[in-house]
Amino acid sequence: MALAIIEAFPTIEIIHNAALSEYTNTDTGGPADWLAFPTTVAETQRLVQFANQHDLATTIIGNASNLIVRDGGIAGLVIILTKMNTIEVQSDAIVAQAGAALISVSEKALDESLSGLEFAAGIPGSVGGAVFMNAGAYGGEISQAVTSATVLSTTGEITVLDAIELDFSYRHSSIQDAGGVILDATFTLVPGEKATIKFKMDDFNTRRAEKQPLEWPSCGSVFKRPKGFFAGKLIHDAGLQGYTSGGAQVSMKHAGFIINIGNGTATDYLDVIKHVQETVFDKFQVHLETEVRVIGR
C-alpha cells in the first residue's frame, strides 16, 4: 500500500505514520496510518476514490479545533483539507473552500462590508467543520448564513446541497448522517456598515478573550447546551472546575472547556469528560452530550 499510494499521488504531500497530535488543537492524538494534504477538489476526489478501490478507511479533518483523536490514532487514510482554503467574493456572497479558516471568512466579510458572520469572528474551526456541525456562538449559527455547500459523497460523487438539504439544527447537519466531505460553502450575507460590523466582531472577540482559556490547548466548547440549562454553569455548580486527570483539566476560567495543561493525552481528555458527565448527572440528573467529535481507535 505504501508504494501504491505514493505512486498514485506523486504531487500530494502524504505522510506515513503521522502523529496527529501535531495537527489537533488539543495537542493530543495518536498516529494516522496515512495522512494526505490535497490542494484541489480533484485531488480530494481522487484520494477518496482510491481509498474506496483499495478498501482503505477514510477520515476527513479540517483544522481539528473541535476534535479529539484517540491515542490509538486513526486507521487507513486521513485527509486534512487545510490547503484547500480559497475565499472568493461574489457580490453579496462569499464562497469559501472547506479548509479555509472560518475566522478568515468573517474577516473577508468585514473587508467587503458584508454582515452576517460577525458571530464567527473568533470561532477557530474550518469552514467544512463549521458547516458539518452547524457551529455557532453568541446567538449566531452557520445555518443563518450558509445557503449551499458542495459535498463529495463517500463514493466520490460531487453534489451541491442547498440549505434545506443540509437540514441544519443545533450542532447538526445532514452531512453527519449521510457522510461525505464538504468541499466548499456559500455564505449569503447582507451589505452593512463596516464600522458597525467591526464593532460587533471586536466586542465578541473581547468577550471571548475575557471568558475563554484561549492561552491553553483545548478542543473548544466540549458539551452541547442541554435544554433548559447551560453546560458550563452545571459543571461550575458541580464544583468541577480545576478537576484534573493526567494533563487534562476542567478550565478554571470557563467550566465548559477542558485544557491541556502539559503532556495531556486523549485518554486524559476522555477521562475528564466521563467524570464530568457522571458527576453532573449524579447532582442534577442532566446528561451532558459532547459537542466535540471523538474519533480514532
Automatic annotation (TrEMBL):
Function text: Cell wall formation.
GO biological process terms held by the UniProt record: cell division; cell wall organization; peptidoglycan biosynthetic process; regulation of cell shape
Cofactor(s) required for function per UniProt: FAD
InterPro entries the record matches: FAD-bd_PCMH, FAD-bd_PCMH-like_sf, FAD-bd_PCMH_sub1, FAD-bd_PCMH_sub2, MurB, MurB_C, MurB_C_sf, Oxid_FAD_bind_N
GO-annotated cellular components: cytosol
Name of encoding gene: murB
Catalytic activity: UDP-N-acetyl-alpha-D-muramate + NADP(+) = UDP-N-acetyl-3-O-(1-carboxyvinyl)-alpha-D-glucosamine + NADPH + H(+)
Protein name, as recorded: UDP-N-acetylenolpyruvoylglucosamine reductase
Similarity section: Belongs to the MurB family.
Alphabetical list of PANTHER family matching this protein: UDP-N-ACETYLENOLPYRUVOYLGLUCOSAMINE REDUCTASE
Active-site feature positions: R171, S221 (proton donor), E291
GO molecular function terms noted in the UniProt entry: FAD binding; UDP-N-acetylmuramate dehydrogenase activity
Pathway recorded for this protein: Cell wall biogenesis; peptidoglycan biosynthesis
Domain FAD-binding PCMH-type positions: 27-192
UniProt cross-references to PROSITE patterns, sorted A to Z: FAD_PCMH
Principal place of residence: cytoplasm
rRNA processing keyword on record: no
Subcellular location: Cytoplasm
UniProtKB keywords: Cell cycle, Cell division, Cell shape, Cell wall biogenesis/degradation, Cytoplasm, FAD, Flavoprotein, NADP, Oxidoreductase, Peptidoglycan synthesis
Pfam family, one: MurB_C
EC numbers: 1.3.1.98
